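F.,

This is the one I mentioned.
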């Protein structure tokens, strides 16, 4: 069956034919590719066509698809059984590896996704402070937790409306939304509103394009949170173990009160985590009164995949190497944008940070959602069509970033050049 036939079939049994909306290619002229297998930087669809993959499962696969060492650990682990619902040593090994390396994380609780980690972090934040409201920044994504699916409302600084149906006005009202890169608005929000339990931010916003913030701005956010008795949550589900082992907390030297992880921490298996100082973490059940649980949490197979991945990325020079490849990759695309079809894509820029990149038809700095060109889908459609035909797979949504991995080596970049100019 080809991709289009499969998509028609799947749509009958699954809403929109997908189990996560961004996979649907919604708003684009192309249909999804059905991936049959993936190795290194290459994914192969059901029709046998190969693509150089820059989506990388939306971030977890920092070592590339099917990394042999991770695969071996997964197989060993499966041979021992794949869920115990009881205490085991595998999650200790992973938690110990992380807490030994990160001085701002004394304790960790494992969950099954980034969304779950955020959900728990918000509850923990409220449980610790005894307050209700959470400040969120416009353009940061924190998973599909009800209170995080909101957009800026009209009127007062901080007011919010649900961005999804099915969310009660009361729930939306517990979140205050403000713009990134605007410290005055944050100050005003703290001055106007009481009862603020926490501030949640993607310290490297990477879910609405890539919008790196100034270090001073992030420091101010941390300072204001502290002064106002609100806990600072760094949502490092993308940036954790990606921009450096210790994520943005390590890069910026800012110590968040609570950090959430996901994606890379499970090495491609479903894992999320909440980390914090001991005095905060011990508010969680069974010691504290903040309830949190999970039938499949700390799944032993996922723990082993995560640990092996983290051991490899903790190696000397790992991040420097990825950053170098990201710059080379950018150079290839930028040159091609200039040359292809007499400069059809010459307005495109590639914004990079560490091993992340974002292709955007604008050369201006972008630090707020309002600075992103509004016609992204229209602009992305022709680009994506050409790239897919040439066997290059970007994340299928113009607001999603690209992910480099260890597998995007010089050989792959050479292949990229060949495919682009062919
Ligand atoms: C991906 C992501 C989430 C949600 O994680 P899931 O595993 O998809 O639930 C939350 N926050 C950030 C910053 C993310 O990038």
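My design for it:
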């Amino acid at each position: 069956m080809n991709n289009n036939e499969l998509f028609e079939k799947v749509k009958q049994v699954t809403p929109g034919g997908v189990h996560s909306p961004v996979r649907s290619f919604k708003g684009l002229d192309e249909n999804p590719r059905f991936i049959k297998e993936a190795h290194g930087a290459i994914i192969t669809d059901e029709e046998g066509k190969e693509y150089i993959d820059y989506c990388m499962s939306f971030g977890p696969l920092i070592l590339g698809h099917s990394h042999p060492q991770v695969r071996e650990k997964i197989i060993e682990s499966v041979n021992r059984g794949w869920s115990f619902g009881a205490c085991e040593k595998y999650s200790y090994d992973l938690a110990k590896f992380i807490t030994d390396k990160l001085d701002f994380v004394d304790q960790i609780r494992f969950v099954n996704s980034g969304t779950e980690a955020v959900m728990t972090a918000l509850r923990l934040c409220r449980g610790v402070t005894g307050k209700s409201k959470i400040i969120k920044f416009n353009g940061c994504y924190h998973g599909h937790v009800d209170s995080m699916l909101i957009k800026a409302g009209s009127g007062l600084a901080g007011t919010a409306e649900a961005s999804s149906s099915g969310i009660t006005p009361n729930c939306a009202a517990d979140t205050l939304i403000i713009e990134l890169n605007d410290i005055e608005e944050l100050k005003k929000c703290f001055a106007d509103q009481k009862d603020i339990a926490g501030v949640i931010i993607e310290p490297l916003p990477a879910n609405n394009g890539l919008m790196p913030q100034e270090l001073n701005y992030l420091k101010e956010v941390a300072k204001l949170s502290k002064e106002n008795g609100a806990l600072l949550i760094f949502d490092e589900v993308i940036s954790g173990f990606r921009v450096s082992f210790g994520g943005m907390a390590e890069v910026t030297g800012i110590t968040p009160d609570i950090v959430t992880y996901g994606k890379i921490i499970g090495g491609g298996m479903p894992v999320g985590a909440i980390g914090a100082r001991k005095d905060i973490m011990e508010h969680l059940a069974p010691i504290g009164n903040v309830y949190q649980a999970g039938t499949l949490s700390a799944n032993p197979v996922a723990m082993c995949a995560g640990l092996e991945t983290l051991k490899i990325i903790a190696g000397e020079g790992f991040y420097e190497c990825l950053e170098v490849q990201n710059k080379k990759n950018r150079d290839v695309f930028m040159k091609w944008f200039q040359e292809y079809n007499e400069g059809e894509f010459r307005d495109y820029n590639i914004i990079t940070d560490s091993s992340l990149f974002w292709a955007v038809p604008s050369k201006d700095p972008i630090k707020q959602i309002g600075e992103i060109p509004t016609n992204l889908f229209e602009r992305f459609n022709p680009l994506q069509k050409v790239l897919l035909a040439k066997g290059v797979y970007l994340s299928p949504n113009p607001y999603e970033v690209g992910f480099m991995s260890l597998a995007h080596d010089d050989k792959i970049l050479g292949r990229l050049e060949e495919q682009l100019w062919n």
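The first strand starts at residue 35 and ends at 39.

Talk soon.
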